[in-house]
Model the fold of this input.
Amino acid sequence: MPKNLQKTINDPIQLEGVGLHNGIKVNICLKPAKDNSGIVFKRTDVEDEQSLIEAKYKNVSSSALCTKITNSHGVSVSTIEHLMAAFYGEDIDNILVEIDAPEVPILDGSSFDFVESIKSVGVQEQKHTKKYIKVLKKIEVKDGSKFISIEPLEKDLIIDFEVVYKNPLIRTRRQEFKFSSGDLTSIYNSRTFCLYEDIDQIKSQGLAKGGSLENAIVVKGDKILNEDGLRNRNEFVSHKILDCLGDLMLSGHRIYGHIKTSQGGHQLTNKLLREFFSNNSNWKFENIEEKKHKDSKYPSPIAVNA
Done:
């Protein structure tokens, strides 16, 4: 019986762009990695012995408008979530991300270019079997009216996400994402977004230096300032699901569980992971052997309106 094996990419991938928040030009190279090595970032612009940063939830040092991870030497890389979501969806377990600046390029504000690049080189199965994280009990984290929870679900991942905005265009929107059938295209393609009236405040914090209508949706009142409008009618909440997927990948493995959240984001997801993994009675590893080789990939994804 074929096993559900770990995967890496077939060949190196080169990408370049600018950081959304620092505006710095950046080059990254995604390289195949050995079994059980996980996802590791390597800053090529710092001393070699300080350059490695494991993509783990415990290494998240900031979650203000993006996810930032930092190693014990204080070396960091930020805005990793869209790339991490591509790894989650495309079934990549082991990869080395070489990067010559402290922020992953924003590209078009979604995961589209990362995913297309991975698909262009393809993936290879490795020798060791995947491990999945099985949720054993419900865990919930609250922050005022905001909350996120995770509870048991058999051999699947569901993210039920609600966004709540006073803005007349975004309003309250809810979407349920199920990883067991369909395709991830609308999730991958959904771009980051912001309100026009928040731009000055964001920039006053030294952020969004590389932001533009080329890599973010900007909403002003009931209008979208981007000439081409939305890529899909659920793009706002779909992008939040994309972010959530990327942050979940910091668990080190894919998760079998049902996540429900209202007004969630990077900070709440990281708090949930820290709380969830703080007690071994909340979870266990599960190895899955598939009946058919063609089904060896962790179930394909779908986004379903709720």
